[in-house]
Fold this sequence. Notes:
Elements: H1 15-30, E1 46-48, E2 51-53, E3 74-76, E4 84-85, E5 98-100, E6 108-109, E7 122-124, E8 132-133, E9 146-148, E10 156-157, E11 170-172, H2 181-188, E12 196-198, E13 206-208, H3 209-212, E14 221-223, E15 231-234, E16 244-246, E17 257-260, E18 271-273, H4 281-290, E19 297-299, H5 308-316, E20 323-325, E21 333-334, E22 347-349, E23 357-358, E24 371-373, E25 394-396, E26 418-420, E27 442-444, E28 466-468, E29 476-477, E30 490-492, E31 500-501, E32 514-516, H6 529-532, E33 540-542, E34 569-571, E35 596-598, E36 620-622, H7 633-636, E37 644-646, H8 657-661, E38 668-670, H9 681-685, E39 692-694, E40 699-701, H10 707-715, E41 720-722, E42 728-731, H11 752-773, H12 778-797, E43 806-811, H13 817-831, E44 836-837, H14 839-842, H15 849-858, E45 860-867, H16 869-873, H17 875-890, E46 896-900, H18 913-921, E47 925-926, H19 927-930, H20 934-946, H21 951-958
Parallel strand pairs: 2-3, 3-5, 4-6, 5-7, 7-9, 8-10, 9-11, 11-12, 12-14, 13-15, 14-16, 15-17, 16-18, 18-19, 19-20, 20-22, 21-23, 22-24, 24-25, 25-26, 26-27, 27-28, 28-30, 29-31, 30-32, 32-33, 33-34, 34-35, 35-36, 36-37, 37-38, 38-39, 39-41, 40-42, 43-44, 43-45, 45-46, 46-47
Antiparallel strand pairs: 1-2
Helix pairs in contact: 1-11, 12-15, 15-17
Amino acid sequence: MHPGVKEDKTRLKGGSECIKLSIIFLLLNINHFVVPVTGYSLRNCRISRGKALCTKNKQQVTEVPRDIPSTVEGIDLSSNKISKIHVSDFKNFPILTTLDLSSNKITQIDTGAFANLISLNSLNLNNNKLDILGDDLFYGLSNLTELRIHGNKIKSVAPTSFKSLTSLTFLDISNSKLHQLNKVHLIIKHLPNLQVLYLQNNDISYFNSWELTNSSLGLTSLDLSKNPIKVFNITADIFPNLTWFNIGQCPQTKPTKWDVRNKTFLSRVSTLDISRLHLKMDDMKMLLESVNSSLTTLRMAQMKHYLLSTLINISCTIPTMSKLQLKQNQLSVIQSHFFQLCVNVTELDLSYNQIQNIQEGAFRSTQGIKILSLSHNKLPSVPAPLNDISNLTELDLSSNEITKLECHDFANMTKLRHLHLSYNSFPALQDCLFKDLVKLQVLKLQNSSIADLKNAFKNSLPNLIKLHLDQNKLTAIKHGDFMGLQSLQNLSLHNNQIKKLNKGCFIGLTNLTNLLLQANRLEEDSIKHYSFNNLKNLKKLDLSNNHIRYKKSSALHPPPFSNLSRLETLAFYVQRRRERAYLPCNILQGLTNLLVLDMRNLHLPSFPKDVFKYTPQLQTLDIRSNELSDLSPDVFSPIQSLEKLYISTTNLRSLDFLIDANLTKLKFIEAKKNQLHVIREELINSLPALVYLDLEGNSFTCDCDNVWFLLWVQKSNQTQVFDAYNFECNYPAVMLGKKLMDFDPQSCRDNIDFICFISTTSTILLFMVVSYTYHFLRWQLAYAYYFFLALLFDAKNKNRQTHNQYDAFISYNAHDEPWVIRQLLPKLEDEQGWRLCLHHRDFEPGKPIIDNITDAIYGSRKTICVISRKYLESEWCSREIQVASFRLFDEQKDVLILVFLEDIPSYQLSPYYRMRKLLKKKSYLSWPRAGEHTELFWEKLRQALKTREQPEDDKFLLNVMDRP
Ligand SMILES: *[C@@H]1O[C@H](CO)[C@@H](O)[C@H](O)[C@H]1NC(C)=O
Ligand SMILES: *[C@@H]1O[C@H](CO)[C@@H](O)[C@H](O)[C@H]1NC(C)=O
Ligand SMILES: *[C@@H]1O[C@H](CO)[C@@H](O)[C@H](O)[C@H]1NC(C)=O
Ligand SMILES: *[C@@H]1O[C@H](CO)[C@@H](O)[C@H](O)[C@H]1NC(C)=O
């Protein structure tokens, strides 16, 4: 047997299958068994929306994969172990626009490696190990606009490294080792269109404009933060267009020398970050003066070298400055005079300080503030001075230490739209709390230990759209709790301890579209019909990770979701479930517009037959991690719109249930970690829309049963099979630990499939040959005619008692005649006294040869075939075997005796199908094995000739030689 080939071939039932297989093999044959990989399934990547994603795989690649199709527009090779980019790696990607090589180990890039990427716009080389950039490294990238190369250790740059990047507008070369500005000059002098330059954290200590250039640069944004700048000296107007400038986070303790001679040099900067910058007070004044007419946003974090109120006063005199950020300044008290001059400020960020107290009047002159953040401070209550800011629209008080809310806290904030109070601790709300917030649209109250809603939402907040109450300690929702929220669309109640949903608990929420109730303690009794029946416009309901577990699949009266006819998404899954659950057969009743259903991990053993008949629009079904093992097509046939099916980890042994379900729109199947062994052609053919199939973690039968699938994976231009090249074999034993895609389809040549192929293709070929070249093939046709006659003759002889003229007909090849004449003939005829029929001696001259053969075989009791390689090759000899075996099978008489003159290994017999089949059934005599004991050989032959035709007898007698 050939390794890896199963013996029983019960699969081939009809002729049509035979023809299909033949066509596959015909295709294969044309390609000389070299299968070109032109399909969609890649070894290390998957294609999604025109991009090759080769990242976050189990196995990281060390080279750029070769099988990425040249039609992709993006390649993501991030987080791998590539160390070198070769010239040949990106030769053929004419329409590639984005290439991500970040987080590899690249130390070397061959010159010209990117030369053919004529369409590339964006190249990411962040977090590699480049230290020296060679000459014309980016040759060919004339369309590149974005280059990210941060987190390398670049210390040296060749004069022409960046020469070709004439379109570049964005360059991030942060976190490197470009100590000197003249290195930066080598880079930017080639980049006429550069607008954004990030040079963060490069150890630059001297910034002298003459080192960069003598003419102006087009930069609009410059990030010099985290450099230990000692001197900042601009003597020429090199940044006429600079609007965004970050020189913050300077780790220098001594004051930086600031020499900007002309006040117009930075006069367009609108966003300035001077966090932790240490300048002498006069220099600081000079800096702020130079942006006096353009600044809108000023960031001053960690200004530990200054008296903050002085800085605030200076900056608030800049009339254009409207956004002031003062994070991380360790402020604990906001004094009343701090913002006296900040009349033009509209956004103030005071987050990440230690503020406990805001003095009265602190915001009296800042009437213009619209957005105020006080998050991450230590406020014990809502500070009263906030009510002075009558124009406030957004207030962030999250992550403070507020323990109590009072009715007057927000009394004056009638224009407030967003209020963030999350991450505080006020266990009970009050009914008067939000009464004045008539315009409020978003209220965030997460993680604030709220256990009681106390009618806070019964009469107020008519314009509220989003309410976040998740991560609190609510245990029940009572009748009318949200009655006043007539505009509410999103309600988050997840991660509470809700066990009870009382009747009418969602009354008034007629506009609610999203309701999140996951991770509570809801049970099947908590979600009765009446819980949800007011939510007529609900589109999304998340009930996952609760304690809902049905113990029967019998119908519910009434079904819980019967009023939710607009619902599109229902999530029901649990994270951890140990006990088995059942699905009531009508649980989905009423969900006529449901599109997405998530029922992961419910430990369902099966689905009730008609469970999906209520959801005809369903497009995405997730039933991962159940214990299904077997699914019926009937379950799926009502959901003809299904596009995505997730059935990983469900103990499935086959996907064949999909064949009859007829899901013609199904595009996506994820069936990881099942027990799928064979993927059949019928299955794939029944899914005409399939574009993505994920079968990771299954183990396959690596034999001819999967050849069709294997070839399809390689060829399909429509469907990609994720991870296909990692599919492992679990059968047959010799293939254990090997990969399915490494199984050689060629080995299926010598089994029945191949015979099948031979017979059909030769029929086709014969037809062609007969039609076109009858002239040259007359002789063969004549033979076919006689062979046909022989078959008739055979049929005629079937029931007729034939008189045996000879004891044995010897079938042999002329090549072996010497052995027959010198050894066999004397032994059998002279010594043992049998009557033999030999063609050279006993055939009737003039009679057609096929008649002679037939007569000789039917006229003899036995036929001895003397088998050698020559014999097998000879056409007539194989006819003799054929006729004899007709007799063998048709008359049920064992007339054949096989004598091997040479040792022929069984795999060499592969093409001689009939012979192989005979050998499987019969024992035989081997002359070479007889060795010196020829007497034993002749004795066995004598016994074989002696036996009558009863099959039992000869089995007993002929089992003298073991098969190889
Ligand atoms: C790339 O640049 C060339 C000129 O260098 C231009 O003709 C071509 O349209 C650009 N291609 C893309 C995709 O931008
Ligand atoms: C500055 O911007 C203006 C208008 O956007 C532009 O015309 C000019 O060329 C830019 N200056 C430089 C040096 O690129
Ligand atoms: C800035 O550069 C000018 C011209 O090169 C030089 O005269 C001046 O001393 C420099 N300033 C500082 C603070 O180094
Ligand atoms: C400042 O620079 C601008 C533009 O380069 C120039 O017009 C102006 O005369 C300079 N002013 C001084 C005081 O040098």
